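Section 3.1: Structural characterization of target chains.
Under the original work plan, the team committed to producing a structural model for every single-chain target entering the pipeline before any wet-lab resources were allocated. The record below documents one such target. The sequence was received from the expression subgroup and is listed exactly as submitted; it comprises 189 residues.
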Amino acid sequence: MDLKENSAVKFIKYYENLIYYFLIFLFFILGKFGFHYADTDSLKFILAPTNKILSILIGFSAIYVPGDGYYYEALNIFINKDCSGINFLLLSFLAFSYLILQYCEKSLSKLLSILLTLIFVYTFTIFVNSARIFTAILLQEGGLKIFSNHQGLLHESIGIIVNLSFLILAYLIVEKKLKHKREKNEKIT
């Protein structure tokens, strides 16, 4: 296939996927609005599993304080709305849905893939969010006391580094697997 044919195929695929891109973006926008108006109690669906994993990792248990979140008395920290990972979930959903659509041919497989992507990013977010919070606790409690006047900056920096690292790595792995699967299928046909 020459360059012109390849560009035309990509354009057609993009056009065919336009409705799916719209639906994915609509979900993203609705998720952002929902998160804006959500409180900590309404985010227990993502905070509770994150708390369970975090409790195992750090060896402390938390108590749930309605309206405030999971409180770790030994560390004097709350896991609440700000720590929920919803923004990461929404961003991951955009990225992985876009990626998956590049490798789906039929409408039903596209819809099912988007649904499976949502389940994947929910699980992925809980794992990454737990790792992010765990990393922040280790760094803040274990030696980065020199940044005590800049806890907000340190907290955000850890979040950016951990989240972006996991997202890029997972994206590259999934993309490689999808390419390999497509090449394998093309060899069969």
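The helical segments are 3-16, 18-37, 44-58, 86-101, 107-141, 151-188.
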